[in-house]
Design a protein that fits this description.
Length: 191
């Protein structure tokens, strides 16, 4: 290490202490330096007003935070069953396929009659809990509710109208749970 004489060290310390330190941009400037030539009370009043404003803003931010937390909690409770219903909807689709197969055996079949009753109970339960099926056939195509998987020409059905529904869509309360998969008319066939 290089030794520095004491005289040089003292000189450097004097230079550094005589240099004015940089004020922090976050620290409030002293009132006397901030408002030159004015009454010191005016500077203190300005600081008081600034801190009062800061306190009011902080209080308003905190109130908004509390309201947002309450709103998010209510929404989480309202849509808590969302993932369960998404899984249940896939099971309902398979149940409907089984119902169609049982119908081929005859509508008087006890298996078919039992499946129809179970389907009615299941649909009633889901409706009570806010699940609503989306009716799509013969309705205008709505990209917010429908997912077009194909276009087909049709002379009877106008263009951009749903010809048939491949998979039923559902709403859960006021949200879309699953869009309906549909085949859409592309209008009359081009010749």
């Amino acid at each position: 290490m290089k030794k520095i004489p004491v005289a040089e060290q003292n000189e450097k310390m004097k230079q550094s202490s005589s240099a004015k330190p940089m004020p922090s941009p976050y620290a409030p400037a002293p009132a006397a330096e901030q408002i030159e030539g004015e009454d010191p009370m005016a500077g203190l009043q300005a600081d008081l007003d600034r801190f009062r404003d800061l306190a009011l803003r902080s209080q308003a931010d905190f109130e908004n935070y509390k309201k947002r937390c309450v709103r998010e909690k209510e929404e989480a409770i309202k849509y808590a069953n969302n993932s369960l219903l998404q899984r249940l909807v896939a099971i309902i689709d398979n149940f409907e396929l089984g119902l169609a197969a049982a119908k081929e055996q005859g509508e008087q079949s006890p298996i078919y009659s039992g499946m129809v009753l179970v389907q009615k109970q299941l649909n009633d339960l889901l409706t009570e809990n806010g699940l609503q099926p989306i009716e799509a056939e013969d309705k205008p195509f709505d990209p917010n509710l429908h997912e077009a998987i194909a276009h087909e020409p049709s002379d009877q059905v106008p263009e951009e109208t749903v010809l048939r529904q491949v998979s039923r869509g559902y709403r859960f309360k006021d949200r879309l749970l699953r869009p309906a998969k549909v085949v859409v008319s592309s209008g009359p066939a081009k010749k």
